[in-house]
Amino acid sequence: MSALQSIAQALTPLGLLWTLLIILAATFMHELAHYWGARAQGVRVNSFSVGMGPVLLRRSWGGTEWRLSLLPIGGYVEIDGMTPDYGEKGEMIPARHGYAVLPAWGKVAILLAGPVMNLLLAFLILTTNFAANGVQQPVPGRASISQVVAGSRAEALGFRTGDEVVAIDGQPLPDQERVNGELVGGWTRVQRVLTAAGPHTFTIERDGARKDIRFAWTPTVNGKKALLGIGYGPASITTRLSVAGAAVQAGQTIVTAVPQVLQAFGNLFKRFFSLDLRQDQGVVGPVGTVQVVSQAVQLGGWTLLLIAATINLSLGFFNLLPIPGLDGGRILLVLVGVVRGRPLSLPQENAVTLAGFGLVMLLSLFVVVRDLSRFF
């Protein structure tokens, strides 16, 4: 199978559509928060675009030109006074109106509004999920079979939805184990075992009784990846929550995610500067995102909502990184100006912003290349 065929097989049209819709919605709300932050302080917003690239449709309302652009991969707002003005000869001169004349706290409020909106959306999605479905607490040393595909080999072998795998090839599943230097849940051993040819024995527990399912396994058949036909994840028990309890759990989930996200970004930068294209369980690229969403579409609406929460969390945290060109970088420049007693000069700010933008573009390219490298 060629690399292009592998990529096409990993993605689905519905997964691609949902990925674009989730990213577009997350970006729209991010930019809308910037818009509200500016208008609340009396600063005009010149334009607001849903999508990027060539403008397909534009309408003026409330002093803002609202645009629908060709590429559904994001959006932007043009806030008055955030970019330099131009003199009669085309030279750039510092703006003296709108955003430029706001106090430091006002500028930070506008810049902070976008990432905070994404974190708030993630909080609301998680709260809704926990209120509707409760919270699942993992049961160590077990993998739960969440789905058995009808007509699959797994169904013929006797696997059933709700089965719990407690041992593989006579070895109990560990609570955790280290794989390629990373600590992962023992339930992930299911995936690794199914990449190895040979006879396997899965010991499952169903209704309190244990049963061995034995089968011969070949990971590829006629050059194609073989599928057993099961969906699986960590075994868990469900605890029901009130709305208040769900909100507390959502907040705890986001707080707990902070060091994990920072570690993932740290690993990404480390691999970026060392040009290490090996895959990890941290930041994924566009192909990996569409692949995850494609799988979520098959599993149902709540799984898709949780993916939307994850994307909003990632967008919020990423934009808070102190890299010039991102919201966090702009906030850093404002704070540097406060400490110095005066803002950076226009050439200094442009140079720093250009360097930051270049870093973000190179980082994005690296993520895409790393994402595609597993297919080649």
TrEMBL record:
GO terms for cellular component: membrane. It comes from the Bacteria. It is a multi-pass membrane protein. The chain crosses the membrane at residues 7-29, 108-132, 304-323, 351-369. Residues 19-363 form the Peptidase M50 domain. GO terms for biological process: proteolysis. SUPFAM superfamilies: PDZ domain-like. Keywords: Hydrolase, Membrane, Metalloprotease, Protease, Transmembrane, Transmembrane helix, Zinc. It is found in: Membrane. Its main location: membrane. GO terms for molecular function: metalloendopeptidase activity. CDD domains: S2P-M50_PDZ_RseP-like. Its cofactor is Zn(2+). Belongs to the peptidase M50B family. This is RIP metalloprotease. The lineage of its organism: Bacteria, Thermotogati, Deinococcota, Deinococci, Deinococcales.
